[in-house]
Amino acid sequence: MGEYCGAAPEEDPAMALVTPLPPTKHPYGCFDRCSTKQVFDNLHGNISLDPLAREFVDTEEFQRLRDLKQLGLTYLVYPGAVHTRFEHSLGVYWLAGEAMNNLQMYQGEELGVDCVDVQTVKLAGLLHDIGHGPFSHLFEHEFLPRVVPGSTWSHEHMSALLLDSIVDKHNIDIEADHLKIVKEMIVASSMFGTTKSANEKHFLYDIVANGRNGIDVDKFDYIGRDCRACGLGCNFQYWRLLQGMRVMGDEICYPAKDYLSIHKLFTTRADLHRTVYTHAKVKAVELMLVDALVEANEYLGIALHAQDPTDFWKLDDTIIKSIETAPNNELDKAKGIIQRIRRRELYKFCNQYSVPKDKLEHFKNITAQDIVCSQKSSKVLLKEEDVAVSNVKIDLTRGKDNPLESIKFFKDFGCDEKFPITDERVSHLLPAYNQDRIVRVYAKKPELVEAVSEAFENLQLRMYGEKTQVHDTPRKRIRFH
């Protein structure tokens, strides 16, 4: 009972006379709403993925981003910071689309912005971080320079290499010229971003990774996302800049009234660096993990994976478990460090100092050898392997220079003149310096804190003639029973 008694479709004579239509293929950059997929993001709401974007998202190389935490090991200090490169990449894709939609709406005819341009910029936003290694920036800036001295490896360059590999491996249908432009947009702000294929529309290269002045949708997303994840307030309003941006002379310019909003973008980023990304305990954990990765590198060949995009995508944050479960006894030291991290037995923070303003220009990174050579007491003989040093640089994206000096503004939308604005024309309360250099020193063993702290103070006296740290190193408390 209840069975369907009609003929099967293939047995229906009427259906046999109908030639099935081939699947609809949309030209690059064009698609309809039926072919999009909605993904809900907790920062931006609904994000619509077009068919080509979905092809990339559904690859194992892109799905790997789910296993790369956006802020590496920061979650050990800020428990909510467990968001990943996957959701950040979707967010940048969406913001890139919003920026392009605004330009297309108000200046599309004037600039010749078409659906192909929109698609290309959105893909660059989606794929700009696929080349990140385990624990994000730690892999690139801390680990690789230790095992490959003079390394110029960058996640942007690896993203471009990996993109070629993904297209070939998964037979993704994208024209070679468009793929080339996507890769150029990804590396636009890095040392590899030297060429632009397009003879016109150079402003398109400033939307995802802006090497010209640092304002890009990548920052818009990670600033808002990181502030929310870490429970910090964020009063920077990226939508003002998205709605106000205007292309003048192949350069994205902003209303003069948004000067302080742009300044807030850079200062919020600097605050995140100071309070989250380079938090003293976050750096202690990172220094320990780098030591563990260096110890494990020879056995696991971690650095070798970074040279081949077809192999590199297999590296992610789960490498910690690979070290812990490895049967090789040579990894006992690396395993021991990771166990110390899990037990919260971190390298002991001794003290820090900010480099004096008049010494910033000629400052060179402090090394463990510098600390050891400054020891005067013979109570404990320090070795370089007993000391860890973190040299922190915090700026507004342009080193000692003010990034706002590279930005052009306009009076209002009826005005065709663009001009720079200097700080003194806006407020005398804005900072005169745009960079901080902070030196932090750690003892790898608790019993060496006093000796390392003393050597660190001696180094300051030798370099600057005075102690430049904020306060003396706290002495170990004596408990009375």
UniProtKB/TrEMBL annotation:
One of its GO terms (biological process) is dGTP catabolic process. It comes from the Eukaryota. One of its GO terms (molecular function) is dGTPase activity. Residues 85-223 form the HD domain. Coiled coil: none annotated. SMART domains: HDc. PROSITE patterns: HD. SUPFAM superfamilies: HD-domain/PDEase-like (SSF109604). One of its GO terms (cellular component) is nucleus. This is HD domain-containing protein. It comes from Oryza brachyantha.
